[in-house]
Amino acid sequence: MMFNATQTSYQCNGSAALAVQESRLVLLEGGLAGATPARRQRGVSGLLRPSQSRLALVAAAVVVALALAASALSDHVASEARARTLDSAPTTTVTVCAGESLWSIAGRHGVEGVPTQDVVSWIEARNSIEGGRIDPGQRIVVPSQAS
User: Fold this and answer.
1) Which end of the chain, N or C, is less surrounded by CB atoms within 10 Å?
2) What is the domain count for the chain?
3) What span, in angstroms and rounded, lies between the C-alpha atoms of 103 and 115?
4) Are 145 and 103 contacting, i.e. CB atoms less than 8 angstroms apart?
5) Does residue 135 belong to any structural domain of this protein?
6) Helix/strand/coil for 7
7) Contact in structure between 125 and 81 (CB atoms under 8 Å)
8) Does residue 28 lie within any of the structural domains?
9) Is 144 in contact with 92 (CB distance < 8 Å)?
10) Are 124 and 138 in contact (CB under 8 A)?
11) Is 111 within a domain?
12) Mean pLDDT, consecutive 10-residue segments, the chain of 147 residues?
């Protein structure tokens, strides 16, 4: 359906004379509502069809899964490298003093590039310590920095 509207406007030209001009406004009704179903599907930009939405969702899930797998693999490789570093480090035996903890000992006898948590775990495993409990006077094997 088509509507016509007429509007009178006054414009000023260079000679300052007023001239009456007619403007026409045309309103076209329709858009996608008046389009055929094929045109409606083709003409909508920015929206995805259901099959495209599913494909995008699957692609996003695959990307997230690959990122998680890469992160886990990277963590595993880094953990293995730290374990090899600790296993190849020279060791020394220390006597636990009153007030010391595995964390304080691991902090003093740590290996460069290896987090204290990994050193604590290594000391626990190497000395068969469960629950992190150590007693004053106990002798434990710890890693030491090469001099």
Assistant:
1) C
2) 1
3) 11
4) no
5) yes
6) strand
7) no
8) no
9) yes
10) no
11) yes
12) 53 55 70 59 68 92 94 88 86 93 91 88 92 92 77
By the 8 A CB rule, do 14 and 26 touch? no
pLDDT at 8: 53
DSSP class of residue 19?
Answer: E
Q: How far apart (Å, rounded) are the C-alpha atoms in residues 132 and 146? A: 26
10 lies in a domain?
Answer: no
Tokens, residue 126: 């190497």
Burial per residue of 92-109, b for 16 or more beta-carbon CB atoms within 10 angstroms, e otherwise: eebebeeebebeebbeeb
Residue matched to tokens 């899930």: 61
Its domain, for residue 123, covers: 89-147
Residue with token string 């000992």: 105
- Which tokens go with 42? 């083709």
Residue with tokens 């055929």: 36
Amino acid symbol at 53: S
Tell me, what CATH number does 121's domain have? Answer: 3.10.350.10
